[in-house]
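Researcher: Excuse me, tokens okay?
***
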Amino acid sequence: MKFPSEEYQYDADASTGFIFIRAYNKWHATIKTELQKIGITHPQFVLMTVLNYLNQTEEFATQTDIAKMADMDVMSVSQILRGLETKGYLIRKPNPKDTRANTVRLLEKGQEIIAIALPIVEGIDKQFFSTLSDDERIFRNFLHTLIRKPDDGI
């Protein structure tokens, strides 16, 4: 059976998207395994870390603020935050400035888990991306370029 891609029919590694997902999967598998050991998922880690970051400067971080910074849809963020609230990691309350929005605050238990998880993830990042050596900064710049790219329906 013929592979339906004319461009990558004989060289899958020429596909930037395919290489990107393989690199992501390798990195993510390590992150996932290590975070499981402390009882949280990667999306939970991301949202608690974003919340912790926002709480250092924002009086009221909303679910929308968290979703925007994490680049996740608001419904998924709400669902994950609900689970984290149930575990006692954070609290959601109506925003005193806008009753249509919830403010979110990391509780002490959430701060404690982030204090454990963040060095783990940063260590994995350091080890994984160290292969890039001096090119890591350039790689980060390329990623920022892709993130800032206007949404063109992709």
In short: Residues 37-148 form a domain with the Arc Repressor Mutant, subunit A fold (CATH 1.10.10.10). Strands lie at 61-62, 90-95, 98-106. The chain has one domain: 37-148.
